Amino acid sequence: MSPREIFALRDYLSAELIGRTLSDAHDCVSLTDILSQTVLGGRLRELSGRAVLLKLSDQLRSGLAMIELDGIARRMLLCPPDLNPAYLDALIADAEIDAIVTDEPDRWTDTGVSLVVTAQLPLQATAPVSTERATEWLMLTSGTSGVPKIVGHTLEALTGAIVAEGPARGPAPVWATFYDIRRYGGLQIFLRAVLSGGSMVLSDPHEALGDHVARLNARGVSHISGTPSHWRKLLMSGAAAQFAPGYVRLSGEIADQAVLDGLKAAFPNSSVGHAYASTEAGVGFAVNDGLEGFPANYLGNRNGVEMKVVDGSLRIRSTRTAHAYIGRNAAALTDDDGFVDSGDIVELRGERYYFVGRRGGIINIGGLKVHPEEIEAVINRHPDVRMSRAKSRKSPITGGIVVADVILADGTDQARVKEIRDQILDQCRAQLASHKVPAVIRFVEALDVTPAGKLARTDA
Amino acid sequence: MSVRSKVIEAIQQIAKEQHVTLPALSDDLSLHETGFDSLAFAILVARLEDETGVDPFTISEDVAFPATVGDFVRAYENVPA
């Protein structure tokens, strides 16, 4: 048995680098000589074979450090910006971290980790190095409570869908995402930009949406991804009018028909597609027919991704899934047959499966199980609605009732609000079981979105 | 608008939404005879809480759920301001 050739990010960056950039709101780094430059102050050798915690305050240096460390470090753990510092000790122990890459070295002087490397810009010149090993990529789940789980990937698994699609046709894409690249959805886009010969424009959590879109335009972004919540916010902002990307991608939450139609109307010359992926299950599939849900014939084995539905939940087995949860008390990531249970509940209607919600997100309405997403999808179909959130509220009579917070389109005539409320309720009564129809509809100005770009569901 | 008329209006609105044909609403009418099911009452209590700021059935543990329309209205009228 001969060993397989190991590819690291640097091996995808050896040719045709001229004109390619990685940029954020403050800096723009040329990829032209990237392999003979260092963001680690020339200290990469010290990190060879180490388990590295990547804890940086910005995505740009994080991305550059990933390019440098991949193929050299034994493993690297990507910390998203909103990680609760209280969990760091547990994560360091579970991932057996023995080196830190940070831009705040003073904060690490008293920890048990003795090797601390500072990531800094501008880049410095260094001698290029060769790939030594397949680095294990560790990512954190974006669950809402407790220490996040550490999910182990390889670059091969992370890039499986990208390699399968082959090189992009036409001019090299300029990628952007509303996600942070230290989360699965954002990392996919970063890896696409590295592998596909293009450039990438990073997001900045402190930047106003209008400024962000102006920057996307100025850098000629052609391909962009985000969650449905990210996209709804963009559609509401009015900033979409100046933007004309060629490809618009949704993932991370259920893409309902309303948001797909809204994007198609806002970007009539773009292709709009939604992808199904999760940190654990990897990239499952992309849907490009403009419709919510996915064709029933995606089940079974399709392009090396096997899917089945067990107890309503989608299960996936492929070479793109994570290989394990990492840590002392880590649970099994797959079932006995190697399938990852996504916890995403689907329902077959006709020839298509539709996502109805998360198994963990069920709300209890008088003893009946309700997926809030299913209610939101119906409310969002009203043409004056931009975004909505359904939740349960305690009731002294039935234990719980459904209430909904709704954001109306900008400039909706206040005189029509009562009429719109009645229309939404009529729509819900026509399409939902009676206990799922909101008892109370409240019109609000904004709905919270988590740092991971998902609608905040604090009570779910 | 008086508390009583707010309650009556909310009952009529929910009856319309739920396609319930209400009999004449007198104080003596038992709540059972209104044709409301528990979901309709749950909606009524939630809406009145939003409108009046009180839910008399949650505030006090020993408040029995009223038996008649009149009891129901009084539960809202008797809430201390």
Short synopsis of the structure:
Chain B: This is Acyl carrier protein. Chain A has 10 helices and 28 strands.
Per the principal axes of the C-alpha atoms, what is the gross shape of chain A?
globular
Low-confidence stretches of chain A: none
Oligomer: heterodimer
Alpha-beta content class of chain A: alpha/beta
Series of H and E elements of chain B: HHHH
- What distance separates the N and C termini of chain A? 50 Å
What is the arithmetic mean of pLDDT of chain A? 92
Low-pLDDT parts of chain B are none
The chain-level mean pLDDT of chain B equals 87
| Structural class by SSE content of chain B | mainly alpha
Number of helices of chain A: 10
Q: Output the radius of gyration of chain A.
A: 23 Å
Q: Over all CA atoms, what is the radius of gyration of chain B?
A: 12 Å
Helix fraction bin of chain A: 10-25%
Biggest β-sheet of chain A, characterized? 8 strands, mixed
CATH topology of chain B: Non-ribosomal Peptide Synthetase Peptidyl Carrier Protein, Chain A
- Proportion of β residues of chain B? under 5%
Instruction: Tell how many strands the DSSP assignment of chain B holds.
Output: 0
Distance between the termini of chain B: 16 Å
Q: Helical residue percent of chain B?
A: 40-55%
CATH top-level class of chain B: Mainly Alpha
Organism (chain B): Bradyrhizobium japonicum
Pfam family, one (chain B): PP-binding
Protein name (chain B): Acyl carrier protein
Domain Carrier (chain B): 12-55
